[in-house]
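During the reporting period the student researcher (J.K.) took over the structure-prediction task from the postdoctoral fellow and processed the backlog of single-chain submissions. One of the processed entries is reproduced below for the supervisory committee.
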Amino acid sequence: MSAGARGFGGKTLLDLADLTETPLKTVCGGVGNCTSCRVRVVAGDLPAAPIDHARLGPFVEQGWRLACQHVPRGPLTLERPPSMNNL
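J.K. obtained the following structure tokens:
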């Protein structure tokens, strides 16, 4: 999943994913409680927010962020977590 800053009107990464064929799932409605919308930053700059640290702990250092809490400010390449259906 790739996202850039132009033309997104302040939409979060979660909002933008909803516009794709494979939206991210969320249980908490996008308030940062459930962590089901987590994505890993593969390329680009997306500084961690305090809620990322609180909810994702050590996974923040591996690039994981909560999509519901971030509005992209530049080009990003993101990775979704592996599907639980594949386990």
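The committee noted the following: The two ends are 22 Å apart (CA to CA).
J.K. will present the remaining backlog at the next meeting.
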